[in-house]
Amino acid sequence: MNDAPAEPRPALRDDRSEPGTARPGAAGRTSAGPRRSKASADAILDAAQDLLAEAGYAGFSIEQVAKRAGAGKPTIYRWWNGKAALLLDVYARQKLVLTDDDTGTLEGDLASMLCSVSRFWRETPAGDIFRSIIAEAQSEPSALEALRSFLGERRHHVAAVFERARARGELDEGFDLDTTLDIVSGFLWARLLVRRLDDDLEGFNSFARQIARGVTRR
Amino acid sequence: MNDAPAEPRPALRDDRSEPGTARPGAAGRTSAGPRRSKASADAILDAAQDLLAEAGYAGFSIEQVAKRAGAGKPTIYRWWNGKAALLLDVYARQKLVLTDDDTGTLEGDLASMLCSVSRFWRETPAGDIFRSIIAEAQSEPSALEALRSFLGERRHHVAAVFERARARGELDEGFDLDTTLDIVSGFLWARLLVRRLDDDLEGFNSFARQIARGVTRR
Amino acid sequence: MNDAPAEPRPALRDDRSEPGTARPGAAGRTSAGPRRSKASADAILDAAQDLLAEAGYAGFSIEQVAKRAGAGKPTIYRWWNGKAALLLDVYARQKLVLTDDDTGTLEGDLASMLCSVSRFWRETPAGDIFRSIIAEAQSEPSALEALRSFLGERRHHVAAVFERARARGELDEGFDLDTTLDIVSGFLWARLLVRRLDDDLEGFNSFARQIARGVTRR
Amino acid sequence: MNDAPAEPRPALRDDRSEPGTARPGAAGRTSAGPRRSKASADAILDAAQDLLAEAGYAGFSIEQVAKRAGAGKPTIYRWWNGKAALLLDVYARQKLVLTDDDTGTLEGDLASMLCSVSRFWRETPAGDIFRSIIAEAQSEPSALEALRSFLGERRHHVAAVFERARARGELDEGFDLDTTLDIVSGFLWARLLVRRLDDDLEGFNSFARQIARGVTRR
DNA sequence: GGATAACCGAGACGGTACGTCTTGTCTTAAA
DNA sequence: TTTAAGACAAGACGTACCGTCTCGGTTATCC
After folding, report:
1. Which CATH number fits domain B106-215: 3.40.50.11030, 1.10.1740.10, 1.10.10.10, 1.10.357.10?
2. Based on CB atoms within 10 Å of each CB, which residue in A70, B119, B136, D22 is the most buried?
């Protein structure tokens, strides 16, 4: 998903040949050239991710990212229009690993998915990053926009679970996919936002049972 | 509702006798005494609320609140330990008016409650304030703590709906109140955070139907 | 000298009878009555002097003096109109101990006096206090006024040395006392202000010899 | 005179090429680059000088200087480490115009110099600035250090007068230049600090006569 | 001998300034 | 022409004092 970072510029060839000689500068990275430097972009995203992991959203500033990446602030602002865009790209880099196993029932699949997402957010930087994006979206219109479109993209992971259920004939004829997806993501967001991402098996099972009961045919 | 605002001091008598003579100062507000000045506190909370309404969370700063309230910054920091505490008090002042009418069925009650909360957040400053608190909680531990305890307090409003249903004998014996409340509030939070608080009757009904089906006995 | 502190009030009897019962307050000092409390005044002056000794002029604030004295700020402002007045009173409390011995010659007396004043300023808080007063006088008109009148009072100590010389017949008939006193105090002030109060015997002797040669008859 | 202002950075080329286009900002000043902006430094020093002239040392604050200069506070703190450093640079900018005319005698030269310095301090901002520096030095160690080294630099102006006298053969063989310079500057400082800089010809002549008598050979 | 008036401590108040931090724009020099 | 570097204006941050004002409480004096 979204493996092309949000570029305000048309589309540059990002791959640049390796530098011939090392600079005396911070990391061996050669500075500049007429194309966008993939090395720089990577360094910036790495720095952003690390910083977020270490200092949290509170300590996350463009200033610090630039310093840590050995990049100039204008370089960041040239390619991302603010914190939010940067955060989104960082989130997009996270490899979403969900153990989307087919347990045979909607209820089982749902519980499994909750566990999976919960673990993903808990054990990778993704959770903190996503929290930050939501927070940023509350004051930054562009972040809100990004968050919304982002939502649509991630939707299909959960949707797949219900598609399987539909294929099995489990679902009621009046099943409303959109609302159901909102329920699932809302439930997860709330846990994320109050930092209650523990592996609450009982709660997840309870959730899954209830949702499954609500949407399956009798 | 949170009728004890987050006061760092034990409990002061906030009511002060009427000022004898007017100060030459800005407003007619009399300045100071060894007790907390209710007038100041009110002016600050009013200013905070207005500022949030006008400039949003992005433009909300202690500096501006102080200026607008005609108060000194130290006065704010004396009684609230940061943005979050101030926001919480502002939220606590909002009169939660929910048309909690008994429609006779759980489904009806649920749909009604969603409408009611949605309208409350949409048509009063409360929604924006609450969004701000959630955002603040992502970087400020104290705000997170406040948000959590806050959650517990508001919980009973939704719980009441389910208690009525239980009294009617609608509920399944395995009904899990906590999880269900999390579902409801999660659904509402998500709508609030992506600013999709429109009066989505169809969606609310769909949600209510599904939840009701999931928890009622067959 | 100046043993009546700069009182803005007409003239109260400062001595108060001993309190009958101790207050639960800080130091057992009883609080108030319709007369000025000598105990409070002393506590304030003590605190001011100690604070100046410990934290220097930079750390000297009415706030701290009040806290340390266990006094209310208004009590300080009631009896002194600012830092400067307080400092002056503190300086006035310093017992000026000058070994004003008659060496038989103007030159000897002068050198002796320089040593004496220098040691006084160096070994008691007086030097730091006086420095503070001069500093304060640069921004506070009232302090300037006080400094000027103060100057007049202290003048006679040095004048006495020259009076003795005149009595001995050492002085030239065109001797200008005022200018000479300005020279002596200026010399000492400059040393004080750049904190070069070491016991510079050679310098003092050189000064004394030169001044004496300048004013004695040939 | 102190032509190298107290720069914390080694030595930057302060001159920058002319701006191509005007900024929308306050004045027509173009904004910055990786070198120190001379325009900003000048604006800050101008503002500091004007502010000191208008509001005096009491009203002199970094805050006000920044506002008046249209500069950011961090810009000031980047190049000067506090009030004192700024004041010193402002003083260093004052063109010391002393009518150092050779009157033929030490006494005449001295009187002339006193008049000259007195007028300089009285009729230019220099006097007020210098008073402020002395005051600042009483609470700020760095200012004290600066004041001391400053002293050394300015010393030779007065020294020149005595050098001329020595060349004329006026001086006694035991003449002590250091002490004498301390006397002269002490006399002037004291007058400055109690704001008695009037053109006291009589006093100056008296001073000059006495000093001259003290150091000339018989 | 009870009322009164001035003192006292405490500390909240509106302000101003402090020195630091971050933001987003701009300029330079190197590559 | 992009880059790293970093100066810049702007302004918020949270803290320290300023000098004023109110509070209750205490106590010496005067009716």
Report:
1. 1.10.357.10
2. B136
